[in-house]
Design brief:
29% helix; 195 residues; seven-stranded antiparallel sheet; 6 helices; alpha+beta; two-stranded antiparallel ribbon
């Protein structure tokens, strides 16, 4: 009896992540410096610490970049004051990052992404965000697709693929003792501030 009762109620599905679309603020357009678009990719732990951000700015066939990493977290406002450098001149650049067509494909995938549904709900995990500042269209798109890797393999395929594409541009995870010590200090400070 219990099985048939359970079987008569299909599992609930929930919207995955968050999508926000809107016009590009005037201040962002003023800072564009002739760029076509900008992508900001961020990963952080559930407390928004242990953060890595990569910002890519495309102007014609040139890619400029800014890499930020901080055990205590990174605010997007820090990207606004970043010194943009050609991607190929930065020590974090790897050959697989240099393909302009690939960066444009990531932009197009961000634009095309639509809400997906999943039976899984997560209350802890990691944060993964992508922001597209489309200077040519005057539009901004924000995606939060954290925990995509924790969801069942057959669910949210587009979010998983999008995260895989975007992760290519992030710095590798820092497991050095110095960085781990910094992270522990940040976590302790955050815990004490919560009291």
């Amino acid at each position: 009896m219990a099985f048939s009762l359970w079987a008569s109620y299909p599992p609930a599905f929930f919207p995955f992540g968050k999508i926000e679309d809107g016009p590009l603020p005037k201040e962002a357009l003023e800072l564009a410096n002739g760029a076509d678009f900008e992508l900001r990719v961020k990963i952080a732990d559930a407390w928004v610490m242990d953060a890595r951000v990569t910002a890519l700015r495309v102007k014609g066939d040139s890619i400029y970049a800014c890499f930020l990493k901080d055990a205590c977290g990174v605010e997007y406002s820090e990207v606004d004051s970043c010194g943009w450098q050609p991607l190929g001149t930065l020590p974090q650049a790897r050959p697989e990052m240099m393909d302009i067509a690939q960066v444009r494909q990531l932009r197009d995938s961000v634009i095309a992404y639509q809400e997906e549904m999943t039976p899984d709900l997560f209350f802890d995990g990691y944060i993964f965000e992508i922001i597209l500042l489309d200077y040519n269209r005057g539009a901004k798109r924000y995606l939060e697709i954290g925990n995509a890797k924790l969801v069942q393999p057959m669910d949210i395929k587009r979010a998983k693929r999008l995260q895989e594409m975007a992760e290519l541009y992030l710095e590798p995870y820092d497991d050095s003792p110095a960085y781990r010590d910094s992270l522990k200090r940040c976590q302790q400070e955050n815990l004490y501030q919560g009291d």
